[in-house]
């Protein structure tokens, strides 16, 4: 019986070693267990399912507004990312939210327009979400969660070999809580901070005012209430986020001004 558990542990450990190492747009080391094509297919399927289950706007001013902002931002991505089949949808939902999925699928809730007061602030939101796609954060997240689950299974198998089922359960159940608190959530905050950086850079390159990212998050803070503490959240503390955006803005102003002089002057509306 012990040899059976050990065999499982060895097999699972070999699966962990199969992850590929890549580098994010900001230079951070990442570990990927899935191909881009796999994630792009999953993103397209999820987007299609969301559109089938939720009410969306067909055409109209807000849809054109979102498409205009997305087009301007995507134009600043490297060629291989511009070649994705980018698609947008406006969901009829009062919550101020937006997202982007692998494969270039961008969704914006109608409630976002009450918080993003102009095209620059909407570009801050969408640029952040595109940053998640560009940095392959979904792949990274599911790869990390898969590796964490596999690692706990390995430890559980070894504990079971030594202490029986009770030992295995203690490791896998207790370890799951520790992994969530100490690995998965903080890592998600790293991704969010990285997307802020990428999104603010993209909006400046596209001719959107990078300083408006600060105003956008101030609006978001005013519209939200009763957040969880930062250490229990997948997102950075809003005030920490605002300070980081403020700190980057001066270095991005020359990028923004150069983009405008080069003819990048988006006229998307609002």
From TrEMBL:
<comment type="similarity">
    <text>Belongs to the peptidase M48 family.</text>
</comment>
<keyword id="KW-0378">Hydrolase</keyword>
<feature type="signal peptide">
    <location>
        <begin position="1"/>
        <end position="20"/>
    </location>
</feature>
<dbReference type="Pfam" id="PF01435">
    <property type="entry name" value="Peptidase_M48"/>
</dbReference>
<keyword id="KW-0862">Zinc</keyword>
<keyword id="KW-0732">Signal</keyword>
<dbReference type="InterPro" id="IPR051156">
    <property type="entry name" value="Mito/Outer_Membr_Metalloprot"/>
</dbReference>
<keyword id="KW-0645">Protease</keyword>
<protein>
    <submittedName>
        <fullName>M48 family metallopeptidase</fullName>
    </submittedName>
</protein>
<keyword id="KW-0482">Metalloprotease</keyword>
<dbReference type="InterPro" id="IPR001915">
    <property type="entry name" value="Peptidase_M48"/>
</dbReference>
<keyword id="KW-0479">Metal-binding</keyword>
<feature type="domain" description="Peptidase M48">
    <location>
        <begin position="61"/>
        <end position="248"/>
    </location>
</feature>
């Amino acid at each position: 019986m012990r040899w059976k558990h050990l065999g499982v542990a060895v097999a699972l450990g070999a699966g962990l070693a199969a992850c590929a190492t890549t580098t994010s747009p900001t230079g951070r080391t990442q570990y990927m267990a899935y191909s881009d094509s796999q994630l792009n297919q999953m993103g397209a399927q999820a987007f299609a399912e969301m559109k089938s289950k939720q009410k969306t706007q067909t055409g109209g001013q807000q849809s054109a507004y979102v498409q205009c902002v997305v087009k301007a931002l995507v134009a600043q991505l490297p060629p291989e990312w511009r070649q994705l089949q980018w698609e947008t949808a406006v969901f009829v939902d009062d919550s101020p939210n937006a997202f982007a999925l692998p494969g270039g699928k961008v969704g914006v809730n109608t409630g976002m327009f009450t918080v993003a007061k102009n095209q620059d602030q909407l570009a801050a939101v969408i640029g952040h979400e595109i940053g998640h796609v560009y940095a392959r954060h979904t792949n990274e997240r599911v790869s990390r969660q898969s590796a964490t689950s596999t690692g706990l299974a390995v430890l559980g198998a070894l504990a079971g070999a030594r202490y029986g089922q009770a030992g295995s359960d203690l490791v896998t159940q207790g370890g799951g809580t520790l992994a969530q608190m100490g690995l998965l959530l903080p890592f998600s905050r790293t991704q969010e901070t990285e997307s802020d950086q990428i999104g603010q850079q993209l909006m400046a390159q596209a001719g959107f005012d990078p300083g408006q990212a600060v105003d956008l998050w101030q609006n978001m803070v005013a519209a939200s209430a009763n957040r969880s503490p930062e250490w229990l959240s997948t997102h950075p503390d809003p005030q920490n986020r605002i300070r980081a955006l403020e700190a980057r803005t001066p270095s991005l102003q020359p990028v923004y001004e150069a983009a405008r002089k080069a003819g990048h002057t988006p006229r998307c509306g609002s």
